[in-house]
């Protein structure tokens, strides 16, 4: 069964059936990644452009690995060595690339809505790899895959997203996807980092981290995104860590086992202490492996129309 849409621009409004199909397909590709030869000819002959206007390590490499594992031809585009520096618009950049007969575009851009705009002006399939503080659907899908792998389901699991909610595209995509899949979602952080619109999405808000931990099955801990904050929204990083940092002592004090996710990169001893990041509670490395499988699934489903 084909996905209900030809682009993956976000998870807002994406039906449960599409998410289930992506996660189920990712399970098949996880098996491929365990083989001695980690490659299949599924997208042989397809050309995919990775169009990154923002710096990225994990997401870009994960997409490139996924594309190469599917035997696609891969073109990596960097804005800092392109005609964008000469004033070329996003539309013209992609139109010129499309004239070279590309099939899919993976885009990361600082402007919210860039992927949606692209989907309206090109024939190629478009995958949003993060647009501003709007959405990051593939990160949320790999988070959901990791949660389902751990608990066997998403239905009824209480996921608390901790940290800089206001500036996080990961938080938005996770909220949309997890709510669609029947999870209970909450957020926790300083009042200055919790957006006003959040509660109407069916999300509970905590301002006390210890209370949030007591109620949660899993914490998805977000990076403090200082580069997106126009002004100081809390006194110091040290004070943030004391109040909202996930530490071994805090987890032990809760008296329960809580699973930890983090989209990376980690600011160690800010949002997450190093011993927790490396502990038995953490599925952070598992997220990285699952990210390749989930992105393979998305590329396959969009690229083949199945």
Question: In a nutshell, what does this entry contain?
Answer:
With 306 residues, the protein is α/β, with parallel strands linked by helices. The protein has helices at 16-33, 58-69, 90-98, 114-121, 137-151, 169-180, 209-215, 237-244, 248-254, 274-277, 284-304; strands at 47-52, 73-78, 104-109, 125-131, 158-162, 184-188, 204-206, 218-221, 259-261.
Q: Explain this structure to me?
A:
The protein has 2 domains: 137 residues, 3-Layer(aba) Sandwich (Rossmann fold); 149 residues, Aspartate/ornithine carbamoyltransferase (Rossmann fold, 3-Layer(aba) Sandwich). The chain is 40% helix and 15% strand. It has 306 residues and is an alpha/beta fold. About 2% of the residues have low confidence. The protein is globular and about 55 Å long. The strands form 2 sheets. It has a 5-stranded parallel sheet, sandwiched between helices.
Short descriptors:
Rossmann fold, alpha/beta, five-stranded parallel beta sheet, single chain
Per CATH, the architecture of the largest domain is 3-Layer(aba) Sandwich
Shape call: globular
Instruction: Give the C-level CATH assignment of the largest domain.
Output: Alpha Beta
Widest β-sheet, arrangement of strands:
7-6-5-8-9
| Model regions low in confidence, pLDDT < 50 over at least 5 residues | 227-231
Mind summarizing the main beta sheet? 5 strands, parallel
Oligomeric description of these chains:
single chain
Q: β content, as a range?
A: 5-15%
Number of strands: 9
Number of helices: 11
End-to-end C-alpha gap: 6 Å
Mean pLDDT across all residues, rounded?
91
């Amino acid at each position: 069964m084909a996905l209900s849409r030809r682009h993956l621009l976000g998870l807002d409004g994406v039906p449960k059936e599409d998410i289930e199909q992506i996660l189920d397909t990712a399970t098949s590709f996880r098996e491929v990644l365990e083989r001695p030869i980690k490659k299949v000819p599924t997208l042989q002959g397809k050309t995919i452009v990775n169009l990154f206007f923002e710096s990225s390590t994990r997401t870009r490499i994960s997409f490139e690995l996924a594309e190469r594992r599917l035997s696609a031809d891969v073109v990596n585009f960097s804005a800092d060595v392109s005609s964008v520096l000469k004033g070329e618009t996003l539309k013209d950049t992609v139109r010129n690339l499309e004239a070279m007969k590309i099939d899919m575009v993976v885009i990361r851009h600082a402007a919210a809505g860039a992927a949606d705009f692209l989907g309206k002006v090109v024939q190629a399939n478009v995958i949003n790899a993060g647009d501003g503080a709007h959405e990051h659907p593939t990160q949320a899908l790999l988070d959901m895959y990791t949660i389902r792998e751990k608990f066997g389901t998403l239905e009824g699991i209480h996921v608390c997203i901790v940290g800089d909610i206001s500036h996080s595209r990961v938080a938005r995509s996770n909220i949309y996807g997890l709510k669609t899949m029947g999870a209970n979602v909450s957020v926790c952080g300083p009042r200055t980092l919790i957006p006003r619109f959040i509660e109407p999405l069916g999300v509970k808000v905590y301002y006390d981290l210890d209370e949030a931990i007591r109620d949660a099955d899993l914490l998805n801990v977000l990076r403090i995104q200082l580069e997106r904050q126009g002004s100081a929204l809390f006194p110091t990083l040290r004070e943030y860590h004391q109040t909202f940092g996930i530490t071994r002592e805090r987890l032990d004090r809760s008296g329960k086992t809580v699973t930890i996710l983090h989209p990376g990169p980690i600011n160690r001893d800010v949002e997450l202490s190093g011993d927790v990041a490396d502990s038995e509670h953490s599925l952070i490395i598992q997220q990285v492996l699952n990210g390749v499988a989930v992105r393979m699934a998305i590329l396959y489903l969009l690229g083949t129309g199945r």
